[in-house]
Amino acid sequence: MKENKCDVLVVGAGPAGSSAAFFSKFLDDYNKREICLLERLDNQKYLHYHEMCGEGVSEDLFKDISPIKPSYIIERIRKLREYWPGDIEIETSMNGYIIDRPLFLKGIIDQYVKLGGKYIQNSLVDFVEKERETKVKLSDGGIIKTTYLVAADGANSLIRKKLGIEGRTEPFIQYVMDKEPEHDTLIFEYDEKWEGDYEWEFPHGENTKVGFPFVDHRDSEKIGGKILAKQTRIVGFGGIGNNMHGNILLVGDAACHSNPLTKGGIRAGMVSGKMAAEAIINDNPLEYDKKWKQSDFASPLFLQAFNRLKEMDNRELARHMEPFRKGVNVFSTIKSLLFYRKYLEIYKAYDLSDKVGW
Ligand SMILES: Cc1cc2nc3c(=O)[nH]c(=O)nc-3n(C[C@H](O)[C@H](O)[C@H](O)COP(=O)(O)OP(=O)(O)OC[C@H]3O[C@@H](n4cnc5c(N)ncnc54)[C@H](O)[C@@H]3O)c2cc1C
Q1: What pLDDT is attached to residue 218?
Q2: CATH for 132
Q3: 319 by DSSP, 3-state: which?
């Protein structure tokens, strides 16, 4: 049986894992640490898995993960439009991108490998913790012993489950439609039937990606146009309490880091991956948990707001957006503060999600 040793083993090469692996190597000044990135999917399946996404990110992501730069850009995003019940339409500016996510991630992994990181295509199937070492069992019977284990294995995280940690997850469905998109715009449509979530329409080259929470009676019939692909995947959101257990650090959707309101998780995952790498380099995993919890990404306002939206019917959804009917400006803010105070915590969450939601 083959046995390998490393200092850091990152499991899962999605946004969170590729960031954790890249920064573990990038910050390893003397290239003295053995870093391994483990991914279960072969190239074809990897590309397929990671294109199941709206692929929308904000420009701010790249401030957070510098020196990683935007690449494989499909489209520049300049605005965001929301449709709320009561014929309320709100348009705000947004500085962001639609990226070709699989190629963008592959690009980061290439840089990581050039820096001296190791990429292994295999699956974690089990692990045992022993003081300062974790023994990881692979699907081919191989073993990797590691000082730090980074769980970046997504919303269905086997590592999280084996640690006995509950996670909040929700399935989403997305259709790639043969439909001319509204370029440079992210569109969101809110309705009580989405139970706190929304339907989205994101541009994707000549096509449009349309998605919503997955529940049987909410299917594709209402979407006009030819369906080119149907994609389903789950999102982990709302946090898990402790993000580290001894020398095991959970990042991205494995730690349910997607934003409860927007369900955007690329930026949150990449930021938590970077924070975990920084803490590992300092040999202080606790620092990661502390830093994440102190960040706006982990604000409890998001989950509280989501839980309240979930309970609202269309009348109330319309009512709470009424002050913004004529746009988001200083007058709408004053109006909301004076006459809509019962929704103040939700407005605060919206404000914060403008900063860290994507
Ligand atoms: C339909 C849909 C649309 C979305 N659109 C957006 C969007 O536009 N913008 C945005 O910011 N977010 C979006 N999200 C959320 C975002 O996709 C996730 O938050 C993000 O993928 C989380 O990244 P991650 O690296 O934590 O997990 P994942 O992307 O799930 O990556 C986990 C990786 O781990 C690997 N893995 C799993 N188990 C093992 C194992 N045992 N051994 C080895 N490898 C393993 C997987 O193969 C995978 O490569 C969307 C989600 C869905 C479902």
Answers
A1: 54
A2: 3.50.50.60
A3: helix
Q: What angle do CA 317, 319, 320 make, to 5 degrees?
A: 70
Tell me, in angstroms, the distance from the centre of ligand 1 to residue 63's CA. 21
Report whether pLDDT(118) > 60.
yes
Closest C-alpha to ligand 1, atom 46: 12
- Give the mean model confidence (pLDDT) for residues 96-109: 98
Q: How many domains does the chain have?
A: 1
Asked if the structure places residue 303 within a domain, the reply is: no
To test the pocket of ligand 1, the residue of 80, 258, 275 to mutate (highest count of ligand atoms within 8 Å of its CB) is 258
Nearest CA, atom 15, ligand 1? 265
Output the CA 77–ligand 1 centroid distance in Å. 21
- Rounded-to-integer distance, Cα 143 and Cα 135, Å: 7
Does position 220 have pLDDT exceeding 60, yes or no?
no
Q: What is the pLDDT of residue 250?
A: 98
Ligand 1 centroid from CA 116, angstroms? 25
Please give the number of the atom of ligand 1 that sits closest to the Cα of 98.
Answer: 8
| pLDDT, position 229 | 94
Write out the H or E segment, with its range, that includes residue 170: strand 169-178
Pairing state between β 198-204 and 185-190: antiparallel
pTM exceeding the 0.90 threshold for the entire prediction:
yes
Closest CA to 244 of 134, 110, 92: 134
d(CA 113, CA 54): 27
pLDDT band with cut points at 50, 70 and 90 for residue 221 = low
Q: HSE, CB side, 13 Å, CA atoms: give it for residue 78.
A: 3
* 136 in any annotated domain: yes
Nearest Cα residue to atom 19 of ligand 1? 265
Determine the average pLDDT of the residues in 65-84: 97
Q: Name the residue range of residue 132's domain.
A: 3-77+97-169+239-298
As for ligand 1, residues whose beta carbon falls within 6 Å of it are 11-17, 38-41, 49, 52-57, 123-124, 152-154, 158, 172, 174, 211, 233, 235, 252-254, 258, 263-267, 269, 358
CA of 176 to the centre of ligand 1 (A): 18
pLDDT tops 80 at residue 43: yes
Segment 319-346, tens digit of pLDDT: 999 999 988 888 888 888 888 889 999 9
C-alpha radius of gyration, the chain, whole number = 21
